[in-house]
Amino acid sequence: MKARTRAATLLLTPFFVLFTAVMVVPIGYAVWLSLFTEKQSGLGFGGTETVFTGLDNYTAALGDRAFLEGFGVLLGYCLLYIPLLLAGALGLALLLDSALARARRFFQLALFLPHAVPGIIAALIWVYLYTPQLSPVVQAMDAGGVGFDFFSPEGTLPSVVNIALWEWLGYNMVIFYAALQAIDRSVLEAATVDGASAWRIAFAIKVPLVKASLAMVGLFTIIGSLQLFTEPLILNKGTGSAVTSTWTPNMYAYTAAFDRNDYGLAAAASVLLALTAALLSFAVTRLTGRRKAGTARKEKTA
């Protein structure tokens, strides 16, 4: 027993050291930093001094309309992006898993390749494709009578969602495809023998059996959506788009820190965003756990 305890301690120690160094310490420092602010002494001619302000930075962030509007943008982004991502990735995975699919490896690689492109490069590529004077896509749309301004207030959110889908659709498709490959083939063969159609096998058998993967991808996608930063930041730089410097909470914190040099406010905004992500993760996990428990009870009853 002691040998097992020593072995477990030895194996887990590097993880806890790394976790403390890259997670606990930075979060603790951010919380500490959010309780202070920099103020100039005298009439503004003296130097700056760090002053303890308690929760004033949190009050300032929550009272700032730009910060709250950033959460509204995130809500719209999640409502548009998450269903499209889950449905698209699962649909592609089901298609590749079907017996009708050909050249599976080629399509897996082709769909996964966009994820290998760094986010900032992907955003730059799409900015080029969104720019009317440069983009052959926009020119073709205009020639066909389909005019759409990707940088307008109405087009900005779909533009960002499109970039994110291009980056992450193939990655999540691979996760769903791996989950589908793990399904016992005898179950599918039995359904085929019983006369079930391909559509019924896909949505009545395969999809329920990969619910755990759906929940995991959904949870990670929610957390990732709250961290939306790179794509709108690129759209904000010199494109004339409707994306402002405080379009999302992450951009608000970035602007507060590096444009206004208000590190206390930036830290407070970051902590509030982290708390939101934690609460949403907890809610999704609890909801998923209750559904699993309900399904298990039904199976026992049956």
How would you summarize this macromolecular structure in one to three sentences?
It contains 13 helices and 2 strands, in the order H-E-E-H-H-H-H-H-H-H-H-H-H-H-H. The chain is mainly alpha-helical.
Describe the protein in words.
With 302 residues, the chain is mainly α. It is built from 13 helices and 2 strands. A two-stranded antiparallel sheet has the order 1-2. Helix 5 packs across helix 7. The two termini are 41 Å apart. The mean pLDDT is 87.
Fold topology:
Elements lengths: L1 H32 L2 E5 L7 E5 L3 H7 L2 H33 L6 H13 L2 H12 L5 H8 L12 H26 L3 H9 L4 H12 L1 H16 L3 H7 L12 H10 L4 H39 L1
Antiparallel strand pairs: 1-2
Helix pairs in contact: 1-13, 2-13, 3-7, 3-10, 4-7, 5-7, 5-11, 8-9, 10-13, 12-13
Features:
mainly alpha; 302 residues
Q: What is the beta-strand fraction?
A: under 5%
Low-confidence stretches: none
Backbone CA Rg:
24 Å
The global form is globular
